[in-house]
UniProtKB/TrEMBL annotation:
Assigned keywords, A-Z: Signal
UniProt region (Disordered), positions on chain: 100-124
Segment forming the signal sequence: 1-28
Protein name: Peptidase inhibitor family I36 protein
Polar residues bias: start-end ranges: 107-124
Coiled coil, from the record: none
Amino acid sequence: MKRARVRGAGVAALTLLSLMGAGPTAQAEAASSCALAFCLYEHDKFEGAEEEFMFEGWNLCYSVARVNNKASSMRNNSAARVQFYNTSNCSGAYGYAASPSSSDGDLTNNGFDNKTSSIKYVRP
């Protein structure tokens, strides 16, 4: 009887450790639906609100709605460059460009943290 209890306690401890090992970052990345597109995230390291874009063609402008002027990280899983604009309708010069198949966990180092209002999908 003691063996069964010890084994049960060991299984419970292993289960608890495995759940604790999957911290907030691992859980956030696993929950992300950004597989074949481009995503902006509200916070650094792909956390917070997520806005996903599925591009329909080259040189089209897309308005940022959910994380407008709040994007702090991005994933570009597309095959093209994505240009970031701090104004609506992709007007004026772009301030940052994400290379194809790239990610950036903190847009602060590019001077474009919390500034994105629109994006454009352009050929690489």
